[in-house]
Target: Ferredoxin
Amino acid sequence: MSPPMDDKPERHITVYVCTNLRVSGSSCAGHKSKAILRALERRADERVVEGHALVHVRPSVCMGYCGDGPNVKIIGGDFFHRVKMDDLDTILDAAEHLIAAKDPA
Model:
C-alpha cells in the first residue's frame, strides 16, 4: 500500500563500505574493512531520528582503490580512503549533512 500523499517520504542516504577480498595484493577486506562495516552499521543505528535511520550502511564490491583501503563512499558525497575506527563519526556527520542540505523543510 502506498503512503498517503501528505506523508513526508523517509529521508536517508546510503554509505557503502568496500569489503572486497583479493587473493593477491592489497584489498579493503585485508585492511579490516568488515570490522569498519560492522562498527559503522552499529554507529548509524544509534543515530536514529523519529524512528528512522538517516544513514543506511551497506557492503560494496571493489571500488578500485585497493591500496588505499578500507574505502567508504557516501552516495552523492565524499569518498574516504584508509578509513579507521576514529573516522566513523566524521563519515556519519558528512552523510547527515548531505541529508540536511537536501531537505526542503
